[in-house]
Amino acid sequence: TTKAVLDYGYGLPRKALVVLDASSRSEEINYACMGCAYYKVTAYGKSGHSSRPEECTNPMYALAEAALKLRDGYPRRDPGAWENCASVTTIDGGDSPNRIPETASMTVNVRFTEDGGLEKERALVERITGLRTELIRGTPAACGDADSPEFARICALAKKHYPSRSCRPKRGYGANDMRWFGAFKGAIAALAMEHDGGHSDCEWCDVSDIGHFTGLLVEIFGQQRTPGNYE
User: Last residue of some domain: 96, 115, 139?
Assistant: First the structure.
């Protein structure tokens, strides 16, 4: 939705950008998000009946080997560091339990921080796996100005409304809507209600926090004397 609005001609913010999606634990305030790319990595083989594997070239094995190469060969990220990472997230191949297929593929999700990362990371994944790698879709990284007075003011208001939170400035791992504002170099703050466990089997959000969180937003926007400072 945000991208569509921008495509229709909506401009960049004048002063600051507030994103209602923390992409992290709710106690932190993100001012940056990683680029996000999804690549299709495909292994090709020779199909045939599974009772005669010697007459076939099984792409499943090539794909499995490629996944292990990626696990072992992609640069490791130190715990807590804002650095690139790659993960295999889906695997697809085969249409019958007694047939060796022609192809097998996997989706590799890469999170990156560098400019031009969509193509750089595609080439890196292809080099490590040795298999054809295509970009499915992706967005660049974005980073706001964590030293700006506006960001400091937003952090102070968040601490006022949530004194038990650290309200620590942080560069986020996830890809939230700030990804569409890479050209904006002002204050960017991603805020959220009480929540945790994003994309896990125990993802939750405390709906009783809606009123409290709304009060924070009202104060952030209400202190602006000039209309249109925030988008």
Answer: 139
Is 56 in contact with 46 (CB distance < 8 Å)?
Answer: yes
Any idea which residue has 């990683």 for tokens? Answer: 34
pTM for the structure as a whole: 0.84
d(CA 163, CA 15): 26
Helix (H) or strand (E) holding 41: strand 35-44
**Whether 156 and 62 share a structural domain:** no
The reply to whether 83 and 22 lie within a common domain is: no
State the Cα torsion 85-168-211-226 to the nearest 10°. Answer: -100
Structural domain contains residue 230:
no
Same domain, 131 and 47: yes
Q: How many domains does the chain have?
A: 2
Which SS3 state, helix, strand or coil, does residue 89 take? strand
The DSSP call for residue 76 is P
Specify the pairing of strand 195-196 against strand 48-49.
unpaired
Judge contact between 100 and 78, C-beta under 8 A.
no
Is residue 208 within 8 A of residue 49, CB to CB? The reply is: no
Per residue in 50-107, pLDDT tens? 999 999 999 999 999 999 999 999 998 888 889 999 999 999 999 999 999 999 999 9
Q: What are the structure tokens assigned to 188, written together?
A: 């960017």
Residues of the domain holding 102? 36-139
Please list the residues that pair with 39 across neighbouring strands: 108, 135
